[in-house]
Amino acid sequence: LHRVDVRSSRKMEIYGSPFILQSFDTNRIVVSEIPRFIIYNQPAEFTIDALKAGEGQLEVAINNGQVPNKVKSLGKCKFHFTFLPTSNNLHQLSVKFNGRDVPGFPKECHVITADDIKIHGPGLSQVLLGAQTWFTIDTSHGSSSNIDVTVFSPTGESTTPSTLLTIAGLRVDWTPTEIGTYRIHVKLDGKLIPASPFYVKCYDPKKVLVTPTTNDSAIGKPTKFRIDASMAGEGNLEISVNYSGQNIPNDVNPTGKSCYEVQFIPHKAMTHYCNILFNGELVPGSPFPVNVMENQRVTAMGKGLGSNPINIPTSFTVVTQNDDVGKLKCSIKGPNDHLISCITTKIDPNRYEVTYTPDRVGEFHIDVLHDDIPIDGSPFTSQSYDINKIKTFDFPSSTTVSTPTSFIIDATDSGAGNLEIAISRDGKNIPNYVQNEGGARFRVNFLPDKPCAHYIRIKLNGIHIH
């Protein structure tokens, strides 16, 4: 308060004097931090402290009063304001004291909706225990400094994952260390974004236990094995039984929590293979073979009837089941009817081992006769391959972080087989994407995420290519 005493030169009294004046200072209004970004349909709040600003009228308006706000007195001229953004329009906050704008106001707040933030990547779906995974946050507003990510383990332990700003957005890398459900909180300016938290299931196919049948099977005989996935986490089991690439039906019967008994009935006297996948990953021991026999029938089985590298001896077994009655003959032809020598060794009274060495890439036709009669499945066809025929082109000697990098693998002359590519750094694999460029040529793409040596490993049918 200020007192103003007004007098005339003739010492006449002035009506109303002395006058009482009240002063105020808008610079002494203290407003808490107001975020640049607010979340759609989530309360936004701030406080105003006018204790040291003098007496006066405090006015707060959002979008010229079109958006309602609630005020709560906290005592001693301090107030708590709350408003709810129900549209994605720009929100303008006005704070006035005695009709004058408080310094720094009006301020603008951007409203964030689910359409403004795109989150994608394998790290938000089912994840493999111990394997580094990732996802990308792409926001149309602000920078990565506004975003905070926290990962909560199934036991409640919180970690802050590593992040890297890339041209696709903010990349978040994390590694699950427990089986169960993870919670991933993504916040923008301290507020959970729409759809957050994200729930991610972690699994481990190594925890799936398979108990295969211990005896050979026979045509028409129900054959059973057991699967226990109770300790592997949540996931999808895929079970198939096949011979010579042909699937046969199988029945799966639950025997307990995530425990199953699988039964199939073979109709062919050949080795059957039982394949078990958990969330697309092979479980330990899969695929495992089941020898299927037929009374008084001669059968052949073994790796030598499948896919084999050249210049390395391979073999298969012939079972006669009749204690060496009859004569066994075997002949093998490679590409262009090229004859391959083979050695037949008697293992026991009704088992023989046939050994041969494929010497070139291509198909090998194997005729097995018993008493001059082709045995069941004969002639067989095996495939040979040569890892030394794998060629690479455009192989980078160096690159830069976050720069898309690629190279070419040409397996045209290597023979048929399964090609595996792994790219790692610091002992951890990073994602790579393979494009088929026609025939057996492939382009391998990856994004280096750290300035260090990256190692590229290529396998053909499980064998490393040097």
TrEMBL record:
Name under which the protein is recorded: Uncharacterized protein
Keywords assigned: Repeat
Pfam families associated with the record: Filamin (PF00630)
GO MF terms held by the record: actin filament binding
GO biological process: actin cytoskeleton organization
Entry annotated with the keyword Ubl conjugation: no
Family recorded in the similarity comment: Belongs to the filamin family.
